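RECORD TYPE: inverse folding
INPUT: structure tokens
STRUCTURE:
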């Protein structure tokens, strides 16, 4: 799958994790993006300004440069990507420090009342 936000980075196939995009920065840092994480990321794009979305993407790259090996996961308790020596981060680990939030307005059903 092509993720346009990251197409300037080298995309490398990982036969052990074929469903996740694996990117490598020019200095050798690398990161994986799981499909669920990307779906959540696109949700932020739909609900926030282009400027906020760019801040999120830039922060992701800053995190990768700092930590060297990162997996952006949909759920860190049940990651799809199997690698060792990486840190696992969910979308809120990226967005919360930037104070960019998605308000959860869902509520339980009224049918039981």
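DESIGNED SEQUENCE:
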């Amino acid at each position: 799958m092509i993720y346009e936000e990251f197409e300037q980075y080298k995309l490398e196939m990982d036969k052990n994790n074929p469903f996740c995009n694996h990117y490598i920065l020019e200095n050798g840092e690398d990161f994986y993006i799981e499909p669920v994480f990307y779906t959540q990321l696109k949700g932020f794009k739909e609900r926030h300004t282009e400027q906020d979305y760019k801040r999120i993407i830039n922060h992701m790259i800053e995190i990768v440069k700092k930590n060297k090996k990162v997996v952006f996961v949909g759920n860190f308790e049940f990651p799809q990507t199997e690698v060792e020596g990486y840190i696992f981060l969910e979308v809120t680990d990226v967005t919360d420090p930037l104070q960019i939030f998605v308000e959860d307005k869902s509520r339980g059903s009224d049918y039981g009342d």
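NOTES: The longest strand covers residues 21-24.
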